[in-house]
């Protein structure tokens, strides 16, 4: 009985790792796509993405966006290096404090605290 539970936990961990690996790999390829782009092209894309976020937030109204655990982990890993002031200036779907909380939760789970 305990052995089955052990394998079930291992399978769950492997599945969680795969769920995190996919967006990480796709974002790595997206980052590689940015290398040949000029700064002007990148700025244009950023402005377009910001406008799309504004339109989506307007459509959502009071509803809250639902991010998957993999989305949260990826955002936390990407944005944790930015200072709070920089985070507050970004156009995000969630509050900067939420991103920092997600990162603390990831660290806590990883180190078993």
Q: Biggest sheet: strands, sense, closure?
A: none
Gross morphology: globular
Cα-atom Rg, whole angstroms?
18 Å
Q: Give me the secondary-structure category.
A: mainly alpha
Mean pLDDT: 79
**Number of alpha- plus pi-helical segments:** 5
The share of residues in helices is: over 70%
End-to-end distance, in Å?
Answer: 27 Å
Low-pLDDT runs of 5+ residues are none
- Got a strand count? 0
Strand content: under 5%
Order of helices and strands: HHHHH
Topology:
Elements: H1 2-34, H2 39-60, H3 69-79, H4 84-89, H5 96-111
Helix pairs in contact: 1-3, 3-5
How does this structure look, described?
- α1 packs across α3 and α3 packs across α5.
- The protein starts with a helix and ends with a helix.
- The chain is built from five helices and no strands.
- Helices cover 78% and strands 0% of the residues.
- It is an all-alpha fold and 113 residues long.
- The longest helix has 33 residues.
Describe the structure using short key phrases.
mainly alpha; 5 helices; 78% helix; globular
Could you write a compact summary of the structure shown?
The protein has 113 residues and is mostly helical. Helix content is 78%, strand content 0%.
């Amino acid at each position: 009985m305990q052995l089955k539970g052990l394998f079930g936990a291992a399978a769950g961990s492997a599945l969680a790792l795969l769920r995190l690996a996919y967006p990480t790999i796709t974002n790595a390829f997206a980052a590689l796509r940015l290398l040949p782009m000029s700064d002007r092209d990148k700025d244009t894309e950023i402005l377009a993405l910001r406008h799309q976020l504004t339109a989506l937030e307007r459509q959502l109204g009071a509803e809250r966006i639902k991010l998957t655990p993999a989305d949260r982990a990826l955002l936390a890993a990407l944005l944790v290096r930015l200072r709070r002031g920089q985070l507050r200036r970004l156009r995000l779907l969630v509050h900067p404090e939420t991103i920092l909380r997600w990162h603390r939760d990831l660290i806590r789970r990883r180190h078993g605290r």
